[in-house]
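Input record (one chain):
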Amino acid sequence: MKFIVSRKNNENGMLLVVTDANILGKKFEEEKVQLDLTKKFYQGQENSEEEVKKALKEARHLHLTGTAAIALGVNLGLIDKENILYVKKIPHAEVCIDV
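The corresponding structure, as predicted from the sequence alone:
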């Protein structure tokens, strides 16, 4: 699986945005909730799973969207399953990593 990764740095640390490559550019809506993966916010560079794992070590905040991205976060112990939001069966989670 390939991921699209964007790094956004600010005074609160790096925000790492990881999205499954196969859903980038799509919009999912359900009731009053939407995931708009057409936005510039989600644009980035294609990365392998190993590259994402390295980048996760530098991040303070995570924004993960898609089945593979969420599975990686869960497997690494970064996401609790009860904190996953689903929009049209697309999983999404936001995490602040304690330092």
